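Work package 3, deliverable 3.1, input record:
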Amino acid sequence: MSSLLDSGSLLTRSVIRIERITLREIRLPLREPFRISSGVVAERRIALLELRDADGVTGWSECVAMEHPNYNPETIDTAWHAITEWVAPRVLGRSFGDPRDIFPVLEHDFRGHLMAKAAVEMGMWVVAAERAGTPLGRLLGGTRPEIETGISLGIQRSPGALVEKARAAVALGYRKVKIKIQPGADVAYVAAAREALGASAPLMADANNAYTLADADRLAELDRLGLMMIEQPLAWDDLLQHATLQQRLETPICLDESITSLDRARDMVALGSGRIVNIKPGRVGGFHQSIAIHDFCSQNDIPVWCGGMLESGVGRACNVALASLPNFTKPGDLSPSARYWERDVVTPEWTMSADGMVRVPLDRPGLGVDVDLDRVENLTVRKTVLGGD
Ligand code: OSB
Ligand code: MG
């Protein structure tokens, strides 16, 4: 068996072969419930993966699927099933010379389940980074040592409540304030935030599919509020109607839900469905697709930024590493641990500087943070071990 210390290790080091995946579900209560147009979450059910290769090198990753299928069709329970039955069996015991080769294997005659695939694919990149002694961000092609951070504010009771939260966010140093909107909590809310924070405050809105083209006049009222962008106003899987809407709006449309692959990003550009892309590696099947979308957008003058799914510190590590790539030119939804949790599952916890930057851990190989295994075990409500030992 090869080990990290063998001669010829340059070659053996680069081969990735996972022997065992420990899949756990933990439950982490959010400090406050997070409401988007399609639902509310108070306690995050999170699947964590611990991948181990034949040499005992381990890597952690997170599956970002939510409890209910209100963001996309996946849920933690469908992902659990998909990982167990189909994703893990495809990669366990199989050798990959390059982490970029993993995603095509997961896609072959296997439709959808991108969050389940992403959890495993990203974990394998983490193992590859650990093996190579390289920070994950570097392995992905990242260049930035720190990333601008934005906050995503859930739908509030009243414009006044939103203003209070938005003011506090700016005072903390956030470089972007994203306001969740829906019919009945849109123009008046965003206008109140604009009024309170001033003309130059970096504001945007995210509708999570709450509108149809029949609402175009209403959405056009947002144009006068000087938003950086409006995220995914129309259906979760639409591109064509967004193109029609974008022609009506001055504000750039940013797509989130609709961009599930490089092909959908190409379609967005071909159709003019939007001018900015929110990349969430979980949504697109992992790092390989994220990098492909990033590169394509870069060549087509489409700025990208890294979105979030209320991840624990494990998923955040993956997002921060990805967001260090050069075309992530707008602030990411990469809030520090304390924004979400009483206590995170990693050490050190994720923090943000007073000027709204999150540091990329380039001084350590792999994820760049340690998983607090005792805490994870304490929070675990189910666990299964896939593969041998
Ligand atoms: O649309 O970006 C979204 C959270 C859950 C589901 C969808 C979205 C979000 C967020 C949270 O906006 C961003 C974060 O993790 O801070
Ligand atoms: Mg969104």
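The chain is about 35% helix and 20% strand.
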